[in-house]
Amino acid sequence: xxxxxxxxxxxxxxxxxxxxxxxxxxxxxxxxxxxxxxxxxxxxxxxxxxxxxxxxxxxxxxxxxxxxxxxxxxxxxxxxxxxxxxxxxxxxxxxxxxxxxxxxxxxxxxxxxxxxxxxxxxxxxxxxxxxxxxxxxxxxxxxxxxxxxxxxxxxxxxxxxxxxxxxxxxxxxxxxxxxxxxxxxxxxxxxxxxxxxxxxxxxxxxxxxxxxxxxxxxxxxxxxxxxxxxxxxxxxxxxxxxxxxxxxxxxxxxxxxxxxxxxxxxxxxxxxxxxxxxxxxxxxxxxxxxxxxxxxxxxxxxxxxxxxxxxxxxxxxxxxxxxxxxxxxxxxxxxxxxxxxxxxxxxxxxxxxxxxxxxxxxxxxxxxxxxxxxxxxxxxxxxxxxxxxxxxxxxxxx
Length: 398
Description:
It is a single chain. This protein is an alpha/beta fold. It has helices at 24-41, 44-58, 68-74, 93-106, 120-132, 142-147, 149-157, 172-184, 203-226, 241-247, 276-279, 317-324, 335-349, 355-368, 389-396; strands at 13-14, 17-18, 64-66, 78-83, 111-116, 135-141, 161-165, 190-192, 232-236, 257-265, 281-285, 288-292, 328-334, 376-381. The strands form 4 sheets. It has a 6-stranded mixed β-sheet with strand order 3-4-14-9-10-13, sandwiched between helices. The chain is globular. The protein starts with 12 loop residues before the first strand and ends with a helix.
């Protein structure tokens, strides 16, 4: 059994991963955020305000849906979906964005900065900032802006300043670089709301804590529906926030297998993938140590996924620790499998998943066929596919 205990430690490490690989002046700023988070998150006032918003604003708890038609079509294990796609803003991202926006306001910050890939984090953060009344600036790669135009429009409507990033691969990694550089210009008055369980301490811890609501809800809901825990839980992994949010609640349940699903892109034998835990090596990126995809000089490789929210060359440090401890198994699904799952779930259940989430659906479909009908798989359907519909239609010639 993996005992997480008080992970990360006060130094921000999950085993050998995580930490604060940043200049000393920035370490002081990060420690101030950590101290403020530890202080304010423990108060009943903060907890009550956040919980009230999660219920009455976001619409929590999100339901679990038994995908009977999909399960019958595939055969084998019964597939269930944790419907994070039904949250306000359409994904799990709103869970931590509300927490980060409230913390920024508590700390007296005047501006919140962030990166976004698929745009779900950007929309959720713009929404949260509008709600609490704080300025919001979102950095987004030009390729992702073109792919995810509906979310770009939403961010602008919500009052966020959108900064297009045209350098490098013009995708998520470069958006992170751009946003972090802007943050460094004024870290005293700004708050960098990282969009996943990545970055320097305390962000992997903080975002995980705000996302744990997913798993704890699911654990109770599933037992009420089935009278037992699921045999397997699975979620897509880019940075890893939706997956760690689900996995945390089942960490001590040894009979529950946990599987994270990475993007194999155009194939693991090509350079066009973002399978960090599958093919990555240990190194540092964006202020923390993790498995990452890098060249011979130790620089991050350009990565690719059909799902903009998954094309990141690193991964959350807690996922790295869980991989080494063999508590979570990490698999990958390529673009073709993702698109097949996207269309199958849409046409069999009337649920259009985000391309990110479709990776986990694809894995569940494949795995269910190998399991008995007495077995169950719970998929975290982390987001809805409104943002991807036009892109997929164009790609498939619909």
